[in-house]
Every structure is written in structure tokens, then in C-alpha cells.
Specification:
Elements lengths: L13 E4 L5 E4 L5 H12 L10 H16 L2 H25 L5 E5 L9 H17 L50 E4 L5 H10 L3 E2 L13 E5 L4 H8 L10 E5 L1 H11 L6 H19 E5 L12 E6 L13
Parallel strand pairs: 3-4, 3-6, 4-5, 6-7
Antiparallel strand pairs: 1-2, 7-9, 8-9
Helix pairs in contact: 2-4, 3-4, 6-8, 7-8
Length: 324
Amino acid sequence: MARKKKPQKQNKRLQVTGPDGWTHIIKGLKSVHLNKRSTRLANQPPEVPPNQTLADLRKTHAKYRDQWRSSPSYRDIQRLFLEEVIPALTSAEKKDTGRIDRCVMLGLGSLSNGQRSSWWELVFLESVLAPLSLSSSSTAISNKTADTPATTPTTNESTTTTSSSPHPSTPPKPPLTNPPIPIYIQDPIFNPLDIAYLSESLNFTVLNHPAAFSEITPSTFLFAPHLEMELYARALGARTGQSGPRLCVGTDVMECTDQLRMKLGQREGEEEAERRVQERVFLGYKDAMAGQRLPGFEKDDWMGFTNVYWTKPKDARDNTNVEN
């Protein structure tokens, strides 16, 4: 009699809280690793994985970028941005005299530690920046120097490879070296190699928490899928008295609202008041924006419960219902 195979065990997603209060969802780790990871994040900077170099990251980046651009989801996203998002933003710009002038990316996760979703999110962002530049009058704005950039360490041969290296095995740099708008990126989990790759190879400005929130204005493209709810609400309402970012790829705000409502009434005092504020931020953003759920992606589930939101012209905001 054939022996029945045991079903494979699926590792749970684990929540790891960093030193700045950020909660990271770690996939594929056994529970025994959780305390070790939490202790390391709390007491010392994230470490670079052994034998990882900038050349390795460039090669991995190229692999994910090619897979993404050959997928049906890539074509769906290009169609969504070119046919719906960009025309709507262009119309709003003409009426509101504003345009997207920067991108703020929150909670990407570590690239060098092999987080697949981080790479998929990065190549997604890379692919929508080009069509996004069509709605802007400037085509190649250099990144300005941030007030509080994260320190990029001095690297040695074990952690960096210069772009001028004649070695034939060195893969070419990804094309995203001159973004059409300044890109600010922040995540406390970045290690020195992540910072070096993002800043030197991609020309992103890497910021220390919480500096990126100061860069969020109504003219921002906010990219923050599955960001911890408190930080997400803070990002959408970062400037008191102003509207939220006019373009956002992030968690469905109604999913956030539903989660908050299940918790309302369970606490008193400041915690309850903060949840009420977050609920108002999410509902206010929903009412001010048009939105659409991102299509599914066959290679990873990071697009789950993720929407793209874009601003409506002022004269349409009171007359159009937003579908999420």
C-alpha cells in the first residue's frame, strides 16, 4: 500500500517590529527566528547578508524587471495608467494647477535579504514612473539633497562593484538611473548594501525615519503597499489642513477602515481617539479620490488588497462616487 504523503507545511507570515515602530511582514521564517530578528532590529543596524554585492543586486534587479515586463499584469498596469490614471491626473492638473513633483516610497523592505515582494514592488514602481512623467512638464528632474539622508557606508570589495568595471560578467545597471521625479525612500530595515544600491545605482534619496513624512505633500506620488496602518494613515494625512497625496498605490483604505471599526470601542482614551482620527483620514481620502483595485499578479500576492488612487478635479469631487 502506497504511503500517503503528508501535506507540506506553509510557514506563517510573521510580524517583526523594528526600532522605529515599523511593523514588517516576514514570509517564510519559522517562529524560532522571530525573537532573534526582533532583537537584532532593536539593538543594532541590519546586517548585510554574507557574499552579497552590488553586482548581485543589479543582476537580481534585471531578472525581476524582465519577468515583470513579460507578465500580463505589467500590460494591465500600463493600460490602467495610460488610459485612466494619467488622463485623470492631467485633467486635474489643468484645473488645480498642480502636478506630481516627487515620489515617496515607504516600507519597501530589504532587497539584499531576498524578500521577493520587495523586488516586485520596486520593478512595479519603475514601470509606472515612465508613463507618469507624461503628465509632468519636466522630464528629468535631478534628486535634490535631503536634509536627513540615511548614511551610505564606505563600501569595500565585498559589498560594491563600480559601474566602470570592465569585467564582462558585470551585469548592466537597470535603466532607472535618472528618475523623472525625485524619489524618496524610507524603511528602517534597510541595511548598508540596500542603501548603497538604492542611492548609488538607482539615484533614490534614502531617508531616515521619520524624515520621509515631511516630503509628502498634495503633489506627491505615495507608494506604500501594505504599510502598517498607523503609518499609512499618517502618510495620507501627513500635512494637516491639506489634501492627501494626489496619487497613491497602497492598501485599500476601506479594508483599513473595516479593521479599525472592528477595534473601535475596545479601548479608551488616547488609543481610541487615535483610531477615530485614522478612520477619518481613510474615509476622507476615499471621498476625495478616484480609485481602482490593482489586478492580480500571477507570481506574487503583493498586489492583494492594493489599490491605486488618483485625484479628481475639484469640481468633480462632490459629485462622483469612488469605487474601491
